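Batch job 17 of 40 flagged for manual review because the log was empty.
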Amino acid sequence: MIIDQINLYRLKMPLKNPFETSFGRLLFKDFHVVGVHCGELTGYAESTSLPYPVYNEETTGTVSYMLKEFLIPRLFSKKEIGHPKEVDELFSPIRRNNMAKAVLEGAVWDLFSKQEGIPLSRALGGQKDEIEAGVSIGIEASIEDVLAKVEKFMADGYKKIKVKIKPGFDVELIKAIRNRFGMDVPLMADANSAYTLDDIELLKEIDQYGLMMIEQPLAHDDIIEHATLQKQLQTPICLDESIHSAEDARKAIELGSCKIINIKVGRVGGLTQAIKIHDICQQNDIPVWCGGMLEAGIGRAHNIALTSLSNFTIPGDTSESNRYWERDIIKPEVTFKEPGKLSVPASSGIGYEVDEEALREYLVEESVIKNDQVLQS
């Protein structure tokens, strides 16, 4: 494929309800959509960066800078791309900035699958026709508020309930959920790096509640102390923020730092790295699932395609569009085919049409970058 133009859209979409983690509270999603053009076809992807550098070092602003100054010129420097995996190799000399890399590479994957006339899921190697969906519940004002949401999402059919925890809002919350709904509810806790090994006795209390996992309890860049903690817990540790590449996953598995890994496309630098991590985990009997970053519809579609790979055996965070948005930026919006299950699109590319009217409604900035206007290097 020869890419002749890239459109960079910056959008600001208000959330239906505030979403709070141990990082802070979000009221809107400020992010980029990239459109990569080749002739009459366009591939789309969505950045997962946040407005502030609290999940990782990137922000909406740094993604814009990296795309315009480094990544797009580098992509245009390759006259023809035979396969999207070449983009991962092309970007490898640039350190980190994984969310910026992922959005551009993801758009190339969508474009490639459209050119091939196949669903993105099949291009990635997936075989599933449907996936199970979980839901993420942020930190609420009270335990009762969380219980009300758990009840609603269980009634909606979600196959996994994830609750955010932080010091002072943890064991009593888990206990209350188990007391109200029983031990059969597929429940996990996400700590977002809010604890240290000084909290080991508190974390060991969680073992009695039969959680599927506790996600990233310790530092965002740690795999050593997580190995120490995992030896003390019956509950599986799932790593999220610590895993930025297939090499990180390999090392964490060898150290015994976790029993599960959450794969987020933006965090690991794109779909190519996501596939590599999936494969390493499968070879080592480590199940994976696809985490969410409050994606709008385009990002949600990419997550659905990725989750069609065989080792995604745990429901991810890919909920319906109306979980977060009054109006999504794709048509049709993401909805359940039956309670708790999403169809993997069978049409080419991501399988959804970009809603241009909605995109314009949320648009705050647009850049059009043509191949012949960029200095080749």
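Reviewer: the log was empty due to a logging misconfiguration, but the result itself is present. The longest helix spans residues 98-116. Unflagging and moving on to job 18.
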